[in-house]
């Protein structure tokens, strides 16, 4: 920034009354803008405030550094009963804070948790992907109302519009289960949040949220804070709150055969990848003629999709129904006989995972993210966005994939992720995505098809017609398999919008699966 | 239940099994050797993901037990026009299903009917047979 720009802005702030001058300050005139002339919010950001701890001025407490408040006027205007309730929440915060239990934070709290997030901007949407538990927000800026009115959710329904250079977002339909901060500030299901995103300069967004909730407050109130561009970050990573908690408390157990080795540990004998022959030749699939194209000339894949997975979530190889486990038509196209080329130990493990006591070990039973390629064929929808430089996938089961198209290398080997690190490029009209840095914690489906941390995935999104994609994933994993293999699944665009899956928040099944596992272990102990 | 909704809901529920998503193995959680048939009064319809639950009071030998009956995901129900209020407390239902292996009053639902035989659900909470 030029010194004279700084000086002008300082002057504006000082005189206040002439704030209108600031609206057209040289800093704002030089804002990055999108092709349609809007301020370009795309990038990696993080709030700079003490709001995550307490929205109001606060002295230090254990695990809660002191900080200044972000509430305009200083105090939250609680009704008398609500002020008492807030005090009770504060007293109980160690056990009662929903975010402490890894529940969705709601809006605005997700915006100022102490984790970075990435904004993607298209003319129709603003997508915000958060490092914290891979939560995302999909803000519709296309002027359309929600097709699913009258339902509530943890993160609400967000609709945005531009007022000049400010993006204004209305958030409605949030439930009454989230808090605003660690200090127990709370709301009811009558909450309405109006957010305002105003770029002050290329690296600062002023974020404001106006809170209305006539059941809890005597009047509306407002918070504001800067969001700062994280110039040192080329990517956001993952913090899977519940998975980390369950690994730490032993509820989710390490499998040394598939998980990435612990630092300093001796890798298991299975942990040394073997050399593999190349993948077999695959039948050719032609990309469609006259495909709809985006501004960059590439096929327009954007939209809401369902995979026609043929039961892949219940097995990649063809099999019939088994009690409550549906059959699958078989989605393996290489090897040509549809059989996965397992190493003997991995085939044995796959068979063992079908035993009832192993149902608890499937990470998705814990509501952890599905991994790659499973995210693409779990039976729930996903959204594809194509903001400049990326393809972004948002899964209804609350996780995201950010596929960068700028040719960057993969992350260092020792950074391992549930959804891996994906980089993509176009080969003609086919999107090719290379994914590495997998953590080896995921199963490929409910019957337990195996992958390890050596998993490397090459996916091809082949648009055969508008709204029709032939999806192929070639998996190379020399720890679990003797050669690479490939699955093929059609992806179909539909007309709908994503809803929210609050899985861990409402997971009534895990205790039953755990009981089956625990009973098996008790029986084994008795027999010994 | 309001009769006006019934047609839509019956249609909705007969296709529900086609796209409800599972997130864990039902075969692992429920017992093929414990088929159950229950008649009782709905106490709550919990509209949730990854699965919804119908809670129902069932009287056996003068003792009332509240059963948790697992059904499809809220999102699948919403997409088929269901609302939270469509199965009010007090509704009498007959339920076929499979009890949890752990022996608690928990079951996976395979069919639900009203006392007059009209079918509320078809299929269980799992995805349908594959198509190709």
Question: Features of this protein?
Answer:
heterodimer; A: 528 residues; alpha+beta; 2 domains; 9 helices; 19 strands; globular; B: 132 residues; OB fold (Dihydrolipoamide Acetyltransferase, E2P); 42% strand; disordered N terminus; disordered C terminus
Task: Give a short overview.
The complex is a heterodimer of chains A (528) and B (132). With 528 residues, chain A is α+β, with helices and mostly antiparallel strands.
Secondary structure blueprint with pairings:
The complex is a heterodimer of chains A (528) and B (132).
Chain A: H1 3-15, H2 19-23, H3 26-29, E1 43-47, H4 80-91, H5 93-96, H6 109-112, E2 117-121, E3 125-130, E4 136-140, E5 157-163, E6 166-172, E7 192-201, E8 204-212, E9 221-229, H7 241-249, E10 303-307, E11 332-334, H8 344-352, E12 382-385, E13 390-395, E14 399-404, E15 421-427, E16 430-436, E17 456-465, E18 468-476, E19 485-494, H9 510-527
Parallel strand pairs in A: 14-15
Antiparallel strand pairs in A: 1-2, 1-9, 2-3, 3-4, 5-6, 6-7, 7-8, 8-9, 10-12, 10-19, 11-19, 12-13, 13-14, 15-16, 16-17, 17-18, 18-19
Chain B: H1 3-16, H2 26-29, E1 30-46, E2 52-60, E3 63-71, H3 74-79, E4 92-100, E5 106-113, E6 119-122
Parallel strand pairs in B: 3-5
Antiparallel strand pairs in B: 1-2, 1-4, 2-3, 4-5, 5-6
Care to describe what's here?
The complex is a heterodimer of chains A (528) and B (132). With 528 residues, chain A is α+β, with helices and mostly antiparallel strands. Chain A folds into two domains: 28-61 and 69-229, no CATH class; 241-515, no CATH class. In chain A, the strands form two sheets. Chain A has a nine-stranded antiparallel beta sheet with strand order 4-3-2-1-9-8-7-6-5. A nine-stranded mixed barrel of chain A has the order 10-12-13-14-15-16-17-18-19. Chain A has nine helices and 19 strands. Chain B has 132 residues and is of the alpha+beta class. Chain B has three helices and six strands, in the order H-H-E-E-E-H-E-E-E. Chain B has helices at residues 3-16, 26-29, 74-79; strands at 30-46, 52-60, 63-71, 92-100, 106-113, 119-122. In chain B, a hairpin with a 5-residue loop joins strand 1 (30-46) and strand 2.
